[in-house]
From TrEMBL:
Organism superkingdom: Bacteria
Keywords carried by this UniProt record: DNA-binding, Transcription, Transcription regulation
Keyword Protein biosynthesis: no
Transmembrane spans: none
Ranges where the HTH araC/xylS-type domain occurs: 188-286
Protein name stated in the entry: Helix-turn-helix transcriptional regulator
InterPro entries in alphabetical order: AraC-bd, Homeodomain-like_sf, HTH-like, HTH_AraC, HTH_AraC-typ_CS, RmlC-like_jellyroll, Tscrpt_reg_AraC-type_HTH
Length: 287
């Protein structure tokens, strides 16, 4: 497996880097980089890990990330199956804080932009009409380049900087990336294992061994880095999967509980209420 790294997205030609991604699945490597990133999912489903947040994603998912925020859009298992006809499509724009010069953000007119870039260090998810506007602008990025894209980015950032309702923070308040590049391979192994086996019993000893640590040391390490316990991490993955199945409305709540890795319906209901704030039946009815 290719070890995840501190991604290098530097372009020697463009100040603003635009990539249109069309692959059988999204990049499965958990990583971070020194760029701001505005990304939208046009096609594809799976689990989204950003900072200390775990959510499911689908077409329309639109996120703005600051530098060095660990992230991963992990496509559902069906995308990795041999002979799968599924595919993913996403558009991403990368830029660095000094893309218009080192003193640009010191200008008094850029106060709201500085605030937006600060908020992006937790990650921001966009919804509603603004999200659709962002998606249309990202599509427009793929059809032009040069100065037009710099002007388009400035206009879009100005719009986001003055938004007061459509953007929601993703990671918890005060979240800081404490990972070192040398540690990403260890956490990649843990993430891969949980995402591939969450619907089964997961033994702490097996995961700790995978990370090359004792159980106690691994629990301390994981909580210090992920800002949550390993058990919470596993349960959030399971609950996210259950939310997706509940909205598909094809299975009973009991079937969803066991398919998501819970050993009993009561355990599933208790954890669902803990993480979502509603019972599975209430969640299904609300949506």
């Amino acid at each position: 497996m290719k070890a995840p790294i501190h991604k290098n997205i530097e372009s020697q030609v463009h100040t603003v880097t635009v990539q249109e991604l069309r692959e059988p699945h999204f990049d499965p490597n958990w990583h971070f980089h020194p760029h701001y990133q505005l990304f939208t999912v046009m096609e594809g489903t799976g689990k989204r890990l950003i900072g200390d947040s775990i959510q499911t994603f689908g077409p329309g998912d639109t996120v703005f990330l600051g530098p060095d925020v660990p992230h991963l859009w992990r496509s559902d298992p069906a995308y990795f199956e041999a002979g799968s006809a599924l595919g993913t499509h996403g558009i991403v724009v990368y830029f660095q804080e000094d893309f218009l010069g080192k003193d640009f953000l010191d200008k008094p007119e850029t106060l709201s932009l500085r605030q937006l870039l600060g908020e992006a260090k937790r990650g921001i998810e966009y919804r509603g009409e603004l999200r659709e506007h962002i998606r249309q602008q990202l599509l427009a990025f793929t059809r032009s380049d040069g100065l037009k894209n710099i002007i388009r980015l400035l206009s879009l950032l100005d719009l986001l900087a003055h938004d007061n309702s459509s953007g929601q923070p993703i990671s918890s308040y005060g979240y800081v990336n404490t990972y070192k590049v040398s540690e990403t391979e260890r956490m990649q192994k843990v993430h891969n294992y949980v995402l591939q086996h969450f619907f089964q019993e997961i033994r702490l000893g097996d995961v700790a061994s995978l990370a090359g640590m004792t159980e106690a040391a691994f629990c301390r390490y994981f909580k210090a880095r992920a800002n949550k316990t390993f058990i919470d991490f596993v349960n959030e993955i399971r609950i996210g999967h259950a939310c997706k199945l509940l909205l598909e409305d094809k299975w009973t709540i009991a079937q969803i509980a066991y398919d998501s890795g819970f050993d009993s319906l009561s355990n599933f209901n208790r954890n669902f209420k803990k993480y979502i704030g509603h019972t599975p039946r209430e969640y299904k009815g609300n949506y």
